[in-house]
Amino acid sequence: MFWNFKKKVYPDYWEAYLHHFEKKEKKTLDTSRFVALDTETTGFDFHVDRMLSIGAVSIVRNEIAVADSFEIYLEQSHFDPKTVHIHGILQYSKRKKSSEEDAIKKFLNYIEDSVLIAHHAVFDIKMINQSLNRMDLPNLKNKVIDTMDLYSSTRIKSNFIDKRAHYSLDDIAEAYSINLTDRHTAPGDALIAALIFLKTTTILKRKKSFKLERFFIKSNRL
């Protein structure tokens, strides 16, 4: 019996994305590019709901590169009017929208091998991975950090309740006096996450025990 082990052929844009990971460089605060991101979605069901928009901004050498930002709106094959009051994106708005594949293609080209930052990051990354899987592609390969984990590590753990606390983006933004004008838009929430990342890492790196890799989310959670 002969087995036909053909190597799976992926589209060029996926192969170009993978190429960035061949460098095998250690990720550090001073040398790596970070991308803070947010997705607005029709809901919270990974199998039914879809992304409405993706917003992102890059962080290089501890500075937000505002000019190097990303924003895209997706065509809506699934729509839940009950969530419009949160994200404000209407099904038939006049915004320019891209197909899911085109949006993912542009997003991969933007992030390259950057470390991804998000608040409640597992949700956003899972939504993006679901899009990739629908296109018969594997999950993202980027390292991922949750800003809630970073902020939690800056807190004094005085009791059991504090150790189990789950801080919202609003909670942390208020603690750091971060403007919430563009809250619940993908670019706005991405910028808030970027600011939280900079503020928390500034505090944490004062500790000799600080190691960035400690905050990388395990791939089996994504």
Summarize the structure.
It holds the Pfam family RNase_T. InterPro entries: DnaQ, Ribonucl_H, RNaseH-like_sf, RNaseH_sf. With 222 residues, this protein is an alpha/beta fold.
CATH class: Alpha Beta
Strand content: 15-25%
Q: Main β-sheet, in a few words?
A: 5 strands, mixed
**Computed Rg:** 18 Å
How many beta-strand segments? 5
Q: Fraction of residues in helices? A: 25-40%
Summed up, the domain count is 1
Give the H and E element order.
HEEEHHEHEHHHH
Number of helices: 8
The CATH architecture assignment turns out to be 2-Layer Sandwich
Instruction: State the end-to-end distance.
Output: 38 Å
Q: What is the subunit arrangement here?
A: single chain
**Category by helix and strand content:** alpha/beta
CATH level-4 homologous superfamily: Ribonuclease H-like superfamily/Ribonuclease H
What is the mean predicted local confidence, pLDDT?
87
> Reading side by side through the largest sheet, how are the strands ordered?
3-2-1-4-5
Query: In the CATH scheme, what's the topology name?
Result: Nucleotidyltransferase, domain 5
Q: What is the 3D shape?
A: globular
Parts with pLDDT < 50 across at least 5 consecutive residues: 83-90
